[in-house]
Task: inverse folding
């Protein structure tokens, strides 16, 4: 095969995979938003079959040969080479995992999602536990097919964040807990900020009305984005011009859907801003989960919880909820959405205690894969760790072990990237604020200009550059957890009128 | 291959096709409801590819051999045999139409839908015309690959309603126009019924609230059904437990979304009630378009426009819209939703003039395929026929030639089944009323019992029995257009206080 023939074969192969990926992505969005539950098993069986077809196409040994040749061929277009480099890793990792096993695993994930949903609704971990156990076994089996000397959980961590290991995460989480645990303690001793008004009754109709306004403020354009509702908010996409977000409305927590909407918009903007040249290719994705979470956490925390953000938005919210917020000032509202208070549910956690939610999950995942923790009574293990780290205890499994969707799809190693992303975000914001007047843009409804900075410095590259190169290029620095910790300490000592550390 | 091996090969083949059909169906629903428009071309290209994969699987010459053997093998389970019989027809018809052409056609339909949507929004037929022309050419080319001596349009008619021909439809539409045109004329001369209150301002939020109630009254259960919004209402399904309907809200026409919701619920119930044994098989579908439309039209007209239907529902509607309907009695409301008045838009047409909308489309389709009508200036041809048949003229293409979605997906020969279905419906209702007290069930919120009758007599069979056998078995009679015409004449002479014909 000539170079040109190989490139053409490669392009067709990529197109075919992108078609299945698109179908599976739309089926998944549909499943998580509007699809009637009784049809789940029919659909699940068939989407698992289609996932198997996609897997068959991908796991073509001939293609591994081709991508291995093209990735090292200097004459080949660099975009193709980078794609081949990434595929070489993916194929190399997975080629020995047989298709039947892959299809069975897909089916298991589909069923586990349904079981998780039911378990959460019925507050009964025992419904989900057998699936969780099977998923762990299935993941073990899958990774056993790889040709790696790394510990299992390290391999998983790298799948979500190339280059990360337990050693590095241990150091990261140590640094976090070392500074945050005492700070949280001091915050708890300080005068508390009133946020009770956030928990009045906020009819969902009104919340939806505000969300329309908010999405428009975020320049989340209906021509390329659509927001729906789901049990556990997520973002999904098929291409640059098709990015879907989801949210969940809670009647007595007006901030929840708002902050999740801003969070997911961060993911959606990332995908929307990737160079359209990469559409349908492996490059058309956030470069790592940490980088993706950095964008959602940046929007949610650094922008969405700022006073500047709310300057024009808060009056709109007040107008929709006059009886709940009419007497609450902008300053009081912004303070309230920044309150730090140990709580049970990660997605509704404040910015300061959030990383401890992640630390708990990291410890549990490590334990599940080194054999020190089992799925049996994991709800109790979970609760004990929440008491230890955060001093709170879940009365209901839906607010404890069952709160997150991730494990139902076998995503172990993903959680740590939320904390890592938060740390990346702090570095990006620090750099961005030196170049553009973020506060002013927020106040003047010029959110698109902030997105333009993020596009220029981060988003456009997709997977073309590595995380660390993007970070270096955008901030002029290497990864440094202290930027994040300094930011949190400054913010919360200020908010609660504490003296320096 | 032994019989058992053939059956197993057949089953696997059917499963594989059903997976693609499910994916394509969900992608289509997504496209027509929530998918961001800017992503259309990306998605369209990929769904056309997947349609091609499904087509490749279906058009396997080896499978034609197998289904031809199995369909005639008395030892084989009758459900499998009937499936093979239907596939033998489908494969025999399509086997010579090459996959590349099929994929190109799928792509054309996807693009034509987008063009139609844009043309309709911009009221500009010239945007859609080139696509319509290409679609007709593509259909000609496709049917030229068949081995049939029938005229082209007859072949198309049979695809939607086996056994029907232009000769039969000509007789059918003659009978209709012969009795209905003078009746419509007499109605127009009579004292008119006030329906102006239906066209006040009905905020869509309120309409949606009523729709929730209505879907519940229709026992359209969220566990197996979901309703969304679209430009042109349709129903789609993936299996017995996954039936999706759509509707469209019009602010100054409160009856439109209501009647379309009832109409689509008729389609959804049909699919939901098919024997679950047939799930995923070719049998799991309405036996013909006419039969499908008979169920939607039965619900819409015979049930949804009856006083008994509104006895408990009208007070709910009144409560939501007190200023618009507070002073309107049940009798006035029911009379208003039955008003006959020549109008422009088929989907909002009354029951009496509706068949003439169909007659127009039938004449145009016949002309398009026998060469007497061209797509050029078809908007004018359309308007001229509306003037001739109904005495009304569209000022805007969106209310004329561009009102229907069907031609954008190459569905020629489908429209006549709407009128045929209306005629079937009258026969079914006549039989049903002899066996169960329909009025009472409607009044007592026992809609599910009506559905049970329809399930027992019609729905459960899917494609297992032919249309004419179902009709015969359910009504004890063969098809007879006069039942329908007598019903319309009785109803409208009564409503408008006319003397007998």
Result:
């Amino acid at each position: 095969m000539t170079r040109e023939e190989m490139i053409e074969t490669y392009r067709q192969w990529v197109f075919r995979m992108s078609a299945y990926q698109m179908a599976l992505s739309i089926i998944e969005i549909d499943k998580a938003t509007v699809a009637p539950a009784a049809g789940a098993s029919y659909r699940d069986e068939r989407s698992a079959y289609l996932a198997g077809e996609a897997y068959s196409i991908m796991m073509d040994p001939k293609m591994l040969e081709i991508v291995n040749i093209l990735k090292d061929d200097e004459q080949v277009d660099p975009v193709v080479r980078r794609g081949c480099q990434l595929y070489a890793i993916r194929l190399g990792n997975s080629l020995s995992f047989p298709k039947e096993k892959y299809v069975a695993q897909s089916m298991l994930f589909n069923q586990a999602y349904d079981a998780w949903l039911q378990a959460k609704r019925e507050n009964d971990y025992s419904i989900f536990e057998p699936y969780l156990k099977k998923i762990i076994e299935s993941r073990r089996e899958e990774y056993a097919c790889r040709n790696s000397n790394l510990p299992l959980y390290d391999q998983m961590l790298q799948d979500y964040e190339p280059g990360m290991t337990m050693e590095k995460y241990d150091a990261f989480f140590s640094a976090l807990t070392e500074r945050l645990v005492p700070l949280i303690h001091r915050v708890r001793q300080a005068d508390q900020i009133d946020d009770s008004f956030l928990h009045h009754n906020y009819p969902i109709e009104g919340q939806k009305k505000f969300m329309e306004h908010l999405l428009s403020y975020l320049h989340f354009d209906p021509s390329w984005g659509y927001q729906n509702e789901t049990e556990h908010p997520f973002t999904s996409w098929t291409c640059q011009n098709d990015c879907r977000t989801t949210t969940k409305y809670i009647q007595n927590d007006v901030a929840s859907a708002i902050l999740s909407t801003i969070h997911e918009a961060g993911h959606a903007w990332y995908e929307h801003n990737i160079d359209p040249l990469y559409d349908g290719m492996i490059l058309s994705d956030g470069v790592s989960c940490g980088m993706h979470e950095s964008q959602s956490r940046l929007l949610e925390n650094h922008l969405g919880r700022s006073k500047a953000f709310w300057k024009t938005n808060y009056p709109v919210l007040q107008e929709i909820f006059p009886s709940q917020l009419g007497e609450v000032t902008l300053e009081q509202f912004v303070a309230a959405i920044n309150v730090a208070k140990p709580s049970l549910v990660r997605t509704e956690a404040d910015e300061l205690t959030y990383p401890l939610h992640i630390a708990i999950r990291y410890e549990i995942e490590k334990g599940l894969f080194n054999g020190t923790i089992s799925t049996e009574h994991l709800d109790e293990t979970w609760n004990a760790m929440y008491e230890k780290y955060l001093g709170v205890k879940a009365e209901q499994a839906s607010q404890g072990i069952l709160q997150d969707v991730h494990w139902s799809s076998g995503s172990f190693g993903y959680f740590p990237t939320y904390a890592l992303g938060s740390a990346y975000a702090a570095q990006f914001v620090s750099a961005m604020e030196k170049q553009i007047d973020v506060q002013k843009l927020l106040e003047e409804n010029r959110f698109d200009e902030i997105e333009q900075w993020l596009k220029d410095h981060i988003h456009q590259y997709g997977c073309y550059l590595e995380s660390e190169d993007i970070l270096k290029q955008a901030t002029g620095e290497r990864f440094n957890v202290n930027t994040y910790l300094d930011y949190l300490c400054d913010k919360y000592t200020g908010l609660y009128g504490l003296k320096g550390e």
Summary: Chain B has two domains: 3-147, 166-495. Chain B touches chain A through 40 residues (CB under 8 Å). The two ends of chain B are 65 Å apart (CA to CA).
